[in-house]
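Entry
Fold in token form

___
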Amino acid sequence: MCVCVTVGVSACVRIQRGMCVCPAGTVAGLGVEGVNPARGGPAERGGGRGLRRFEEIPHTGSSGWLNLVKFWREDRFKLLHKHMERTFNTLGPIYRERLGTQSTVNILLPSDISELFRSEGLHPRRMTLQPWATHRETRQHSKGVFLKNGAEWRADRLLLNREVMMAPAVRRFLPLLDEVARDFCCQLATRVEKDGGKEERGHSLTIDPSPDLFRFALEASCHVLYGERIGLFSTSPSQESQKFIFAVERMLATTPPLLYLPPRLLWRLGAPLWTQHATAWDIIFSHAEKRIQRGVQRLRSTQAAGGGSGGAEGEFTGILGQLMDKGQLSLELIRANITELMAGGVDTTAVPLQFALYELGRNPAVQEQVRVQVKAAWARAGGDAHKALQGAPLLKGLVKETLRLYPVGITVQRYPVRDIIIQNYHIPAGTCVQACLYPLGRSRDVFQDPERFDPGRWGTQESGEGPGGGGGFRSLAFGFGARQCVGRRIAENEMQLLLMHILLSFRLSVSSSEELSTKYTLILQPETPPRITFSTL
């Protein structure tokens, strides 16, 4: 999964008087370039008023530096998602925000996000995480697609899509994810029976599952990317892998403060914050490099023996092998992208699983509804994981509903390539506009009864307009369009398969029915990891 943050550079263009508003949602008149009056859009929502200038968009304060000081002093970054929700409630469905030198336009309605999507262009651009880019540059590492833009991004992304996004690729790696999910549940069942209390129907054990979920996510990612297991379910998992998980957490935690400071200056000064961030990335790259080197050696040995990268006929040995076998990306670019997929595939999968298990535990009726469908689908599938997922659409709804309430990345950003109109305000091309996912998922203007946890809502409204309009632009946890999360199919299937096997094996319960408190540290996560009771069926 991909993470976007709430920063970017905004342009500002004053529109001349005498301009007319096209019903197309674009601007026609004097002094505005790159507009297209042939497209339908949101300009008609002005209630008869003329088009409003960019400067008239409601804002949180004109001084970016005073805003930034206030954010730091009040520790608002930790609750940035709540700040966004309050600001939309106060200022309406669009507002501007300046923080330091950074400026964004924030939106939340699906119909407005749809207009943004239509203006993203052939090479969609989102804000570059400069601390990450600086690490690559100072360490002389190549950048993967997450940090690239323009034609170079598109060329690499199209090649990666074939191995991680397309349906044939999913069919190849799905059995590897299923194997890890089954092993996780077998190990958990053994632990529940050994350490749990005896009940009338079996055993139960209450634990914080978050460390186990992090190990599951790393094990699953390695199996899919490298085609090998790394043994994290053993009684003594490797310290190297535990160090990797800690490094990912440290990297995510140190990113937000660095977004508003010059990373290269901090690098030259040897600032402690930069040193922590760069050291975390070094550990991540070192872990990935060791796995990649082992994979490369194994694959070259196989090729020297007369086989392809896939080993025995019909055997899939990882995305690394597929990319090497195609030979269309250099080994250095393969390294860069595999490392990014590794770094982005642990917390962003493990944390939503925590939220999903908790919501199932505090909504027993929903849990049983999903379990009934899963059991029937599993019985019909005869052990075929792909068929089982196809027969249990509530599992997909369960993941979407979890991410509606608890989006891992709380924004999706784009820089429109043409002038657009949103909420009857002119927004110049090149402005950083971001869809704010936490308030979107909880808006009564978009969802009926948004506080209710209901995976079934996606079966009836997924393709329809819904209360907030905008078609499918209500579920955006993985982004949208050509620049959606490159690891989306891995993450979606990884979560669905684990939840399926857990529901087949355990009944979940929690001691509290209250919603979890959350915090933002580049990703949204629980303030305190929830404790879940697993009871054998």
